[in-house]
Amino acid sequence: MKIGPRIWVPTLAFGTACLLLIAASAQSQTNKIKIKINTVVVPVIVTNKEGTHVTGLNEGAFEIKENGQVQKVISFEEINANSAAVPKLQLPLNRFTNSFDVESPKTLEVIALDLINTPFVYQAEAKKALTGFLLHLVHPNTLVSLFVLEPNSVHMIHNFTNDSGILIEALKKVESRASSRDAQNLGAGTDEASIEAAEFEAIVAGAGALGYSSGASEIAAASARAAAGRARVDASVQNQEARETLEELQQIAAYLANVPGRKSLIWASSGFKMSSQAMAGEMRGADAETTEAAIRQLQQANVSVYPIDVSGLLPSRPGALNAASMNPSVPNVGSDPGNVNARSAQIEAYEAGLMDDPIASKHQTMSYMSSATGGEAYYNQNDLEKLLRRAVEDSSQYYLLTYNTNEGGKEGWRKLEVKVEGSGYRVRSRSGFFFTNEIRAEAKIAQAEELLAVTSLLNFSQLPLTGTWLPIEGSGPQRKVPFALALLAGAVTIDAEHNNRINLDFIVIATSTDGKEAGRMTQRLERTLPPAAVSQVESGGLTYANSLNLSKGDYTVHLVVRDNQSGKIGSVVTQVKVP
């Protein structure tokens, strides 16, 4: 018989008798917690003409606008990152956590090497450039972590350290791999322009030399449509890869969410396409909801993206007027004014987005990601060290402005603009944010976030939690594996407007060494708390206990908790052995 979950009073140790937290009490209510607080926090970088950070500015020097309207700043702070090292949490073997032992902002750099979108030929150059950065530019007080974006998963190669030697050795162990770009590029030149030109010439050679007869027009149009079909397959693959990339950047942000301070994320990639509507919050080529979720998580975790185009110096080519000369999927109308079929196919190509300059589109994506998060994009330049050095400086000193946004009004992208009084200043902040009323109450959003957490190899730290494996019980083929999850004081949102309601999702999934699911436990804990329990949860936290039934073996376990009232999610990926 399955034993239901238990909620323990925070002050009790694991070995003592448990009391239900929902026990009745006549004590008066003291805590009033509201859950709808739309506070916007905006990190701001201010530099002079030489690019040096400007320090010592006061609140009166700043003006912040949302959609053109001046906002009242309710909190202002100049942040100077702490240079002390981040100590490792020392836990017993049966304990696990997603928390970092960090109380003040640090100078933190996150390097993400993108093997999803980067062709094989450029991956070695990317590693070479990053090795140079680690060798010469990492300051002893800068903490750096390494991640690799791969199809279906993001891997942390090394956690935060200031030891360049260790990081370089970790980077050397990253094996280059072929991407879908390599499959598309077989038999062509090594740069994207020559690849596309060669493919287009093949189409023109087969159809353009046939003359101006209606039959020739039919053949030309058919050839063009066939090429467009192949391109749509490639575009579909690239759209999927774009979604994977955004989800993996979102996972990195979720991992860093509980680390205080501004984090600079160096995204070394060849990029992916995004339309010119991106800045308005309307995406083409990457799923809109995935993009919005990634940007929101990056902003909430205070992560600024610094994209680096590792494809080398690729000059921007002409736009749509000459798009046919770049994209093999665009039919050649030629000089035949009666080539109606080919013109029809060309219109289809425009509507499918096949006329976009692929290089300019990828650079636009990089600019969008950096602008939306307050970072800076790097392409078509030789001075890579300048950008990497700037990313380090930006996480070391900045200003933090906070204001309350209007809960009403139109949902979607809200534009931000920050100005500083005086001349000669360059101000950089995120360009805006996505706003949706009660977005955290939507089941669709919750399901997407929980699915991401239970499939990720990274811990999500927005909701801090610590867990313990309790003694395994039973002796049959299926043994009971109990656990307890402790949520820290103040972490759980209590809705005072609805009788002190809490709403938490718990998901625990164990997978065996062959990757198959071996055990699962899911529960939504939605109930009201008596007045006495409110202060207990606020001062001592909440502990949840349950168990899995597992046979003998070694398991990887994902433990996920989501607070459905705040939208915060916490997860831990850990191991358990059943003897």
Task: Describe the structure concisely for a colleague.
This protein is an alpha+beta fold. It has helices spanning 120-136, 164-172, 180-185, 192-207, 214-256, 288-300, 340-351, 358-373, 384-394, 443-455, 531-540, and strands at 6-8, 39-47, 62-66, 69-70, 75-80, 95-97, 108-114, 143-150, 153-161, 263-269, 303-309, 397-404, 412-420, 426-429, 432-435, 465-469, 479-487, 501-512, 517-528, 542-550, 553-563, 569-578. Strand 8 and strand 9 (153-161) form a beta hairpin.
Notes on the structure:
This protein has 579 residues and is an alpha+beta fold. The protein is 29% helix and 27% strand. Among the domains are: 6-34 and 441-578, Immunoglobulin-like (Sandwich); 39-81 and 396-435, no CATH class; 186-234 and 321-354. It has a five-stranded antiparallel beta sheet with strand order 1-20-17-16-6. The chain has a five-stranded mixed beta sheet with strand order 9-8-7-10-11, sandwiched between helices. Helix 1 (120-136) runs antiparallel to helix 2. The longest helix has 43 residues, at 214-256. The radius of gyration is 27 Å and the shape is globular. The model is unreliable at 8-36, 186-214 and 313-340 (pLDDT under 50).
